[in-house]
Amino acid sequence: MSYKVIKLAFKERACGPLGFGEALGVQTLLQGAGIFIWPLAICSLLAVFLVVERALALRVSRVAPEAVLKSVLNGNLDQVGAADGESVAGRLVQRWKDGASGEVLKAWTRNELVRLHRGLHLLDSIVAAAPLLGLLGTVTGLATLFPEQGLPDSQTLTRGVGLALSTTMIGLCIAIPALVGANWLGRRLEILSSRLDVLVEALEAHRR
Predict the structure, then answer these.
(1) How far apart are CA 208 and CA 192, in angstroms?
(2) Is residue 198 predicted with pLDDT exceeding 80?
(3) Between the CA of residue 194 and those of 51, 64, 75, 89, 200, what are the distances in Å?
(4) Is residue 64 part of a domain?
(5) What confidence score (pLDDT) does residue 159 get?
(6) In a domain, 134, yes or no
(7) Is the pLDDT at 10 greater than 80, yes or no?
(8) 15 against 65, higher pLDDT
(9) CA atoms within 13 A on the CB side of 87
(10) Which residues contact 72 (CB under 8 A, 6 or more apart)?
(11) What separation in angstroms does the CA of 198 have from each of 33, 36, 117, 160?
């Protein structure tokens, strides 16, 4: 019996080469999501934008260039010019040259780190909200399956459940890549923060 069902599914092109049926196709998923496709689409676009924008903003050349760190560690602070002020490390060196030291310099460093974290809280919110939106769409879809009188037939019930679950699938497809991106950006921030800590300690050592 199972063999006949599988054979019939392939015959009707219900299964593609990867094992996903037309019921799991993009068009069917979008239809199954209903009105919830709009907030899910906004989450998806926003997640992509935040990951790309933060990845560009957290480049080593934009935060702590190797040339600036080497100049500070080697004591060649005169080699750090105005052109290096476009990076976070360059701005901290300029603050140090202007007389900032101790807690004042560390406060400027914390301010720069807060700027580097900009937008990451939104990415974390998307990671949490996308599956919940999918779950809400699923519950809403299941609630609409049952009429006021009686129960739907088995075919309608099966089709409705499959369509309702599409919102959860879309939500997870958004949340999982966003979670990977958020973890990668968080690790990158830790590395850059450690480089800035080394820079500040080196500047303080020169002040002594």
Answers:
(1) 25
(2) yes
(3) 21, 10, 19, 12, 10
(4) yes
(5) 61
(6) yes
(7) no
(8) 65
(9) 23
(10) 80, 89, 93, 199, 202, 203, 206
(11) 50, 47, 19, 58
- Report d(CA 192, CA 182) in Å as an integer: 15
As given in the structure block, the two tokens for residue 63 are 């935060």
For residue 17, is it within any domain?
no
On whether the CB atoms of residues 126 and 51 are closer than 8 A, the answer is no
Instruction: Please give the tally of structural domains in the chain.
Output: 1
Angle in degrees, 0-180, between the axes of helices 88-97 and 66-73, rounded to the nearest 10: 30
Name 21's bridge partners. 15
Residue 167: domain span: 32-145+152-207
**Token digits for 156?**
């309608």
Spatial distance between the Cα atoms of 152 and 154, rounded to a whole number of angstroms: 7
3-state SS string for the chain: CHHHHHHHHHHCCCECCCCCEHHHCHHHHHHHHHHHHHHHHHHHHHHHHHHHHHHHHCCHHHHCCHHHHHHHHCCCHHHCCHHHHHCHHHHHHHHHHCCCCCHHHHHHHHHHHHHHCCCHHHHHHHHHHHHHHHHHHHHHHHHCCCCCCCCCCHHHHHHHHHHHHHHHHHHHHHHHHHHHHHHHHHHHHHHHHHHHHHHHHHHHHHHC
In a domain, 16, yes or no: no
Q: Please provide residue 145's backbone torsions phi and psi, each rounded to the nearest 5 degrees.
A: -75, -30
Q: What is the pLDDT of residues 160-186, one digit of tens each?
A: 666 677 888 888 999 999 999 999 999
- Given a contact cutoff of 8 angstroms between Cβ atoms, the answer to whether 126 and 178 are in contact is yes
Whole-structure pTM value: 0.76
